């Protein structure tokens, strides 16, 4: 089960008028593999944004989706707030989102600072614009098709040789072979030394 928290960033909306946040939640709940752990609305303030994200991180969310504040006005500080949390950025998300947006709104798409990436604790962050159309575009074309795959890739663990019975058996065989070879070398050298002492020459069959 993928645990997802939703954060709406706006100076004017609340839980009742937050149409974009509601859209994101509805889209997520179409999947049986996603658990929406909560939806909150915070103001366009860096500390409030970081506080909401930190709360979800403490609750062990696998993914956090924000909407709002990704433009270029003085009050738009989501990008700066989110970027500080990102340890591994997914630049392809912003690039493809702006490309898709260009097909709808034209050159205005360059003002979007949508961003995505993983935190240090491997929580996946998405920062979407606040418009309902933009959220719908991001959810349907990018996030929902790839969310399970991205989270799954991060949760994969590389097998270790100690936990791999086949690998362990091969290592043991190699160790035994090396040990036998060393024993034969010692015996061969020992017999050759004895024969040499008595003036004989001989070939060892070891």
TrEMBL record:
GO terms for biological process: Mo-molybdopterin cofactor biosynthetic process. It comes from the Bacteria. Transmembrane segments: none annotated. Pathway: Cofactor biosynthesis; molybdopterin biosynthesis. Keywords: Molybdenum cofactor biosynthesis. InterPro entries: MoaB, MoaB/Mog-like_dom_sf, MoaB/Mog_dom, MoCF_biosynth_CS. Residues 5-150 form the MoaB/Mog domain. SUPFAM superfamilies: Molybdenum cofactor biosynthesis proteins. The keyword Cell inner membrane does not apply. One of its GO terms (cellular component) is cytosol. Belongs to the MoaB/Mog family. PANTHER family: MOLYBDENUM COFACTOR BIOSYNTHESIS PROTEIN B (PTHR43232). May be involved in the biosynthesis of molybdopterin. NCBIfam families: molyb_syn (TIGR00177). This is Molybdenum cofactor biosynthesis protein B.
């Amino acid at each position: 089960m993928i645990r997802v928290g939703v954060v709406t960033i706006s100076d004017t909306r609340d839980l009742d008028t937050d149409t974009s946040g509601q859209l994101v939640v509805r889209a997520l709940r179409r999947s049986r593999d996603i658990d929406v752990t909560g939806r909150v609305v915070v103001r366009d303030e860096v500390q409030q944004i970081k506080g909401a994200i930190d709360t979800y991180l403490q609750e062990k969310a696998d993914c956090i989706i924000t909407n709002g504040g990704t433009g270029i006005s003085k009050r738009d500080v989501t990008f700066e707030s989110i970027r500080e949390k990102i340890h591994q950025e997914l630049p392809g998300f912003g690039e493809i989102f702006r490309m898709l947006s260009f097909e709808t709104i034209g050159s205005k798409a360059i003002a979007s600072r949508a961003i995505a990436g993983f935190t240090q604790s491997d929580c996946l962050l998405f920062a979407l614009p606040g418009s309902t159309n933009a959220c719908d575009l991001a959810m349907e074309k990018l996030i929902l098709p790839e969310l399970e795959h991205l989270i799954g890739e991060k949760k994969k663990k590389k097998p270790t040789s100690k936990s791999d019975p086949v690998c362990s058996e091969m290592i043991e065989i190699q160790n035994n072979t090396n040990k036998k070879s060393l024993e034969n070398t010692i015996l061969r050298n020992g017999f050759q030394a004895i024969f040499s002492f008595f003036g004989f020459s001989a070939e060892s069959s070891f």
